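Proteins fold reproducibly. Next comes an illustrative record:
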Amino acid sequence: MKKLLSALLLFASSFASAQTIAPENRIVVMGQATVEAPADQVSFNIYLSSTDTLSLDKMYAEHKALESKIVRILKDLDIPSNKISYSLFSVGKRPSDAEKDEDRVWYFEGAQEISFTIDSLRAYAGIRDRLIREGIITFGSAFLSSKEEEMKKEVLAKAVQVAAEKAQVLAKAGNRKIKRVVKIADTDDNDPMFINYSNDTMYAAAAGASGREEGTLIEIPQSISLSATVKVTFQLK
């Protein structure tokens, strides 16, 4: 039994050694790529905030009124429930800005974020104006693409291809050849990193400050850029 165990350990040790690639027989290359697709969606992020210096109940009642208004607006706009997401309501107690402690006033503050997505760029301006007219004075919006998952696959393939081409050039310069890919990761050895450039816009408009426009920038075609960076380790012949 001891002989069998020793033989197995020796085999495992030899196998592990065979799998180890010496540093001089490998090359590590970074690959970066970017792909674009037409924007065909818009996301909205609404930030609800309510405060009161005296009563937690009054602050909460103010928040519930804002929340009810948002629910009514989303129903009026026919936003499907599967396109809406929201954070849980959070509440805290914060001091006001004051140079002296005796002048500082503590107040209750409640906060919640509500997000929704629309599948029509043409509807963007109308929804934006509706939110402002209803007194929803702090919200953000960003362009999105329904093809983002396809873009992720495409940009990863391109990033690896870029890394392979760089590795071929470097190996040739050193009179070597690429044998195979050993490992693919990002710079932190995690999953490949994606960056979505979506033209994020924040609004903090005064209630009722909207007006009819003859034209809108949303009529100009927009595109979404998705970038990925990978680190590829190649074994050299």
Observations:
- The two ends are 40 Å apart (CA to CA).
- The chain has two domains: 25-39+146-192+222-236, 41-144.
